Amino acid sequence: MRLPATSGEWIDRSAPIEFKFEGRSYTGYTGDTVSSALWGADVRVLGRSFKYHRPRGVLSLANHDTNALHQWGDQLNLRADVVPLQAGMDLTAVNTFGGLDGDKGRVLGRFARFLPVGFYYKAFHTKGLFPMWERMFRAMTGLGKVDLDSPRRSTPKAYDFCDVLVIGAGPSGLSAALSAAAQGASVVVVDENARAGGSAGYQIGNDPARAEIHARLLAQVSANPLIRVLTSTYAAGYYKDHWLPLVSAERMLKMRAGSVVVASGGFEQPAVFRYNDLPGVMLASAAQRLMHRYGVKPMQRAVVLTANADGYRAALDLLARGVAVAAVVDLRARAGTAATLVQQLRDAKVEVLMSSCIVEAVPGTGGASVAAARVGAVQADGSPAADLRDIACDGILMSVGWAPAANLLYQAGTKMRFERAVEQFVPDVLPDGVFACGRVNGVHELSRRMADGTRAGSHAAAAAGFGEAVGSALAPEVESPSHPWPIVAHPEGKNFVDFDEDLQLKDFHNAVQEGFDNIELLKRYSTVGMGPSQGKHSNMNGLRILARLSGKEPQQVGTTTARPFYHPVPMAVLAGRGFNPERRTPLHSRHEALGAKWMPAGVWQRPEFYQLAGKVRLDCIREEVAAVRGGVGLIDVGTLGKLEVIGPQAAEFLERVYTSNYANLKVGMTRYAVMCDEAGVVIDDGVVARLAEDHFYFTTTTSGAATIYRELSRLNTMWGLDCGIVNHTGAFAAMNLAGPRSREVLATLTATDLSAAAFPYLAVRECTVADIPARLMRVGFVGEWGYEIHVPARFGGALWDALMAAGAAHGIRPFGVEAQRLLRLEKGHIIIGQDTDGLTSPLEVGMGWAVKMNKPFFVGQRSLKAIASKKLKQQLAGFTLPPGYSGDVPLECNLVIADGDIAGRVTSIAWSATLGRHIGLAFLRPDLATVGNKVSIRLTDGAMVEVEVSPTPFHDPENLKQKEAV
Amino acid sequence: MPWRLLRFALNRKHPEPRMFTHHDKLKSSYDVVIIGAGGHGLAAAYYLAAEHGVKNVCVLEKGYIGGGNTGRNTTIIRSNYLTPEGVKFYDESVNLWQDLSRDFDLNLFYANRGHFTLAHTDAAVRTMRWRAEVNKHYGVDSEVVGPEAVKEAAPMIDLSCAGHAPILGALYHAPGSVARHDAVAWGYGRGADQRGVEIHQQTEVLGIDVQGGKVKGVNTSRGYISTNKVLCAVAGSTPRILKMVDVRTPIYIHPLQAMVSEPVKPWLDPILVSGSLHVYISQSARGELVMGASLDPYELHATRSTLDFVEGLTSHMLDMFPFLSNVKVMRQWAGMADMTPDFAPIMGKTPVEGFYLDSGWGTWGFKATPVCGKTMAHTLVNDTPHPLITGFSLDRFSHYALTGEKGAASVGH
After folding, report:
1. What does the pLDDT read at residue A76?
2. Do B283 and A870 touch (CB under 8 A)?
3. What is the pLDDT of residues A363-397, one digit of tens each?
């Protein structure tokens, strides 16, 4: 039920919201979370537990547990404690079988004795039956359901900078922000809650002075122009150099901070006693949030279990809001700093029991509520005395201590140590530029948290270059806010340590008994901390239990590794818009207009072929080939990597990275270039053109462009040669004009002398073509007279149009990648990556001529020397099928079989109209690679095809096409 | 419910003994010292004791059992490799995997799901065909299938991958499986322990005593032990150990990252890998989506996570499975992959007599756990490499006889 309205509450009672849960309709208010609205509507069972399907209610109301995981349409695993209530929500609890109330999974609770920790490792592995069991496990264990029809959600991403990033807008964080801003730093404060203020807003203890502090902090922060506060946003992870994703429902903001203050507070920790998971048993802070933020009455009559002053304040808050407090049960012998609070409670006729504990929450009828707290005295050894009494209540508050919310500190590389004074881990050595304050720093008392924040803010600002660091670390707390052993054993168990995973105290005993007595092993075997809340409410007690069982100090036990994320992040938010850029050459629209069929080539789109009306793919390609062989064709080769190296040692650089000689290359000439890696494996090829003594222009393969440029830049940096590399890949358009008529076509567009004498094969000229400044290279990749023409990208379209117009009279045809593949195959030219693999040396593909072993050095030379001294394992050879062959044709990568063993594989194969038969390249065992030899290829279906080893090039073996006479 | 669970209910006290005996002290000498209590080291210890009767063995671990790459990988088991050496080796591993749960009497959740390596380019289809043909030749069940077969096994997939990387086909490998990785280390550890092997956790190796080119002992954080045989099975820490014996290898360390989602109800049975999109994914028995991508592109001896990794991987995940938009990523982590130039491991003898290597496991070590243990145990006992690992010797690099598995790597490197 709801309490009377108060001024600071977060709900808007004038804006009710209708929603459904498990098929029933409810009303909440704008500003509610799903859990607060349900609790306010007196719904007590909000979900079912993971393993035993026990009824669960509000535990932390703070995203530190996952008792209440809901599904709404395609939104799954919604954390009801923190998800804002929205109109029209139609929610169900996840992982129930037949609904929340009638959940058939409840039966598992009765079999709990059969299912101890790790039970699934001990059975179900009979080979034939395991698949059945696995299916059952999978159906039982998943939480929410994925809606397979749900569309992709696109979210924006933003980037931001600040001098100081403060994580947590509680009293310490806001104090840090104020002091950092006072020194002139721009500050961003991020907090996962809908409003700033943190625990100052609800740990009031019915004390007006504390409420006033809260109001004053908020007013000062909102008045400060240097401070921005991002609420409903959490820092999901800490990455190197103060790079943090700040995640909200709408987007991810990637923040680069000058320095970081972690003021993330603490996770209030549950006590462990029998049935501590019943709806109605909750953390004190959860009850306070329900009352102060949402005006929800957490219970009618409470028993408060405490071990610190916070619990007494919670009791006072309960009283102030009209909740009866049956008793306060303090685990400690003395109330310490809470003495005056104790007196206030006793004045209000509340029974305060010292040195006492709750042994069990006595379930109400139906087992889904609390009827009483079973209380007893704590004996010297920490166990309860035999004499117990039941105190009637419908709710139990737990205020026995805190664990630092130190996930981000761990991720940042902070060394933590266990501090007995506060019974928690605190930062010991912080990384540069990272600061901590407040509860996460082991500082708990309110005024001290603010002082600690002021200190941390000042230091953080100074680290970011603003002002002087003022203040030093505070003295330890005078009393620990956390009890060292808030755990009560019970012979009947059901005393939960990990609520996500349904782990009871005895599960820890059993796991340790089995040898999992290291914190990391214990986690992996028992699954403590592996659930969706990643141990926020369970790791500390798990650690205490292990420490006690293994006779170690918590410091020796240590913690498991904290990794991103602080809270889970939806994939859509991480992925953003899904940016998959595609590169297009300047000629893209020309190809489109010509009917190009596209194929991906690395990040590029290239025309595979040009679709002719009424013709099939193969015929289109054959016509393109015929045009090049018989007349003239034009292909866009603008996707090639295009690099320049300039400087006195440019030639030296190329000598080192390519296998051939370039120092002796004449200005105005080009040379084929092969690049190897250190193992002597061919990784790229291209053409090097010498434009001047100290100036080379060269190409790489399309797919290799980016990596080759990166690798060359790395080598150049390492070697420190006097030359520079420029990547012109996107800056130049390039096309290859090829075919017996290519010279005639080009001659109409340039004044350059194209005669063989003036412009021989493999020459390069800087000239104008169609009045466009161009680099013109005579190349022969496709086996015809041809020119590669490189022009600034902005002139690409104009050049293409000019060439197509000039070629029209000669029947010019644009040709695509497929035609080029066949044309080069006819000429016996290899394609790196298709006719080579991750181990191919140049020697195996007949490129020994391009490898100059007598150079002083090139990358891969040492390896190639070793390789050259041995017999080749395989070599690339040409082969042909008989002209009339009509059977199934081998596919690329079908294997060559000799004597029943693998003796090679097909790397390229195609029908050659020029030659009237299928031609191909294959790796062969060297003894099989003799021209005229017959070898067998095994088809995919196992049938064998015999082919004949043939000399390459298949087309124009004498290279007559490059000679003027032809 | 299996009857075996009855004993838990019938016993007042938990009826399970320790899996790993605690030893207060190291002995002064052992027949074999194994460095690294990951799956590989423990498997070698297990087979030494179980198959060769060598029981005076100790396994040294600076952290805890299975805490390195054994507990960090994405648990995929397959044998669809590219080289004859690789195919035969991993095929034997898959054979061993089949019966491990029975051998250990421990449920490893070895789940045969089928494995698709998706091809988005013609070049990838060619490589898949090469692998399929080599696999078939050696009797390994692999075939190239079309997009329709992918769709049948995973009907929810967007075959166009958001339009920018259409799936043209796949290499389908029916034996592809996943297993509970931690349990594999525990199973081998328990089995070795039961046979007399000593496992010493939180015991760091500080130096290796080599005299006259022969191993004489090991210096540890808990004292010196003498031994004539040392097996180094430490994955990402290999370079550090090799410095102690002055052995050079071409191993270089790259981080490999992975991430896991919150548990969701089962929707994906097969294991899917896309080289072009740098994605691999399977759904665990707990319902979590276990996802990985390619190696980080630089050398680094660290297990830090990066944001760009999860940004890139989730983006590609949504290309394939747009409906996962609201599924949350719970946790990311990294391991240190000990890469070799040819993507094949380095196993066997070294120039130092008595010092044996099981390394170079890069991104492919988990699936090889059983066969590595078996072959290394054989190699240690006989001081000669097991026939299945002769192609993986360290000296292949000086002979330039590489074993090219680059094409079989799941994703780009």
Report:
1. 97
2. no
3. 999 999 999 999 999 998 889 999 999 999 999 99
Is there a single domain that holds both residue A259 and residue A280? no
Q: Which residues pair with A306 in a beta bridge?
A: A330, A399
Tell me the C-alpha distance between A80 and A76, whole Å: 11
- Spell out the domains of chain B, with CATH numbers in brackets: 24-72+182-251+342-409 (3.50.50.60), 112-175+252-339 (3.30.9.10)
Give yes or no for a contact between B106 and A121, defined as CB atoms under 8 angstroms apart.
yes
Alpha carbon of A516: minimum distance to chain B alpha carbons (Å): 8
pLDDT, tens only, A710-768: 999 999 999 999 999 999 999 999 999 999 999 999 999 999 999 999 999 999 999 99
Domain that holds residue A679: 641-728
Asked if B330 has any chain A CB less than 8 Å from its own CB, the reply is yes
* Secondary structure letter of residue B3 according to DSSP: G
**Type of residue numbered A265:** G
Q: Residue A262: inside a domain, yes or no?
A: yes
Domains: count for chain A? 7
Interchain contact A837–B (C-beta under 8 A): yes
Torsion of CA A13, A15, A18, A19, to 10 degrees: -80
Q: Which one of A141, A572, A940 has the shortest CB-CB distance to B318? A: A572
Going from the C-alpha of A886 to that of each of A106, A837, A890, the distances in angstroms are 68, 30, 12
- A177 and A263 fall within a common domain: yes
Q: CATH number of the domain that A554 lies in?
A: 1.10.10.1100
Q: Which residues pair with A651 in a beta bridge?
A: none
Query: A82: which 2 tokens?
Result: 């923190």
Crossing angle for the helix pair B181-194 and A519-526, to the nearest 10 degrees: 110
Provide the 10 A C-beta neighbour count for residue B399. Answer: 11
* pLDDT tens, residue by residue, A88-120: 999 999 999 999 999 999 998 888 888 889 999
Is B266 in contact with A563 (Cβ distance < 8 A)?
no
Q: How far is B351 from chain A (nearest CA, A)?
A: 20
The domain boundary residue, chosen from A375, A400, A425: A400
Those residues of chain B that have pLDDT short of 50 are 410-413
Q: Tell me the pLDDT band of A401, cut-offs 50, 70 and 90.
A: very high
**Of A104, A122, A148, which one is at a domain's C-terminal end?**
A148
pLDDT tens for residues A931-959? 999 999 999 999 999 999 999 999 999 99
Residue A610 sits in a domain whose CATH number is 3.30.1360.120
Is the Cβ of A225 closer than 8 Å to some Cβ of chain B? Answer: no
Nearest Cα residue to B124 out of B87, B162, B159, B166: B166
pLDDT, one tens digit per residue, over A268-277 is 999 999 999 9
Q: Say if B62 is an interface residue toward chain A (CB within 8 Å).
A: no
Please give the Cα distance from A216 to A200 (Å, whole number).
11
d(CA B16, CA A240): 44
Within this chain, do residues A434 and A501 fall inside the same structural domain, yes or no?
no
pTM of the model: 0.94
| A895 contacts B285? CB cut-off 8 A | no
Angle between helices A446-463 and A208-223 (to 10 degrees): 20
- B152 in contact with A, Cβ within 8 Å: no
> A944 and chain B: CB distance < 8 Å anywhere?
no
Number of A–B residue contacts, CB under 8 Å? 291
Residues 815-834 of A with CB under 8 A from B: 833-834
Mutation to test the A interface, candidates B102, B184, B330, most A Cβ within 10 Å: B330
Cβ-defined contact of A138 to B285 (cutoff 8 Å): yes
Minimal C-alpha gap between B190 and chain A (Å): 10
Name the residue of chain A whose CA is nearest to B165's CA: A600
Q: What is the ipTM for the molecules in this complex?
A: 0.95
Interface test with B, best of A121, A510, A533 (most B CBs within 10 A): A121
- In B, which residues are within 8 Å of A866 by CB distance? 398-400
Same domain? A124 vs A33: yes
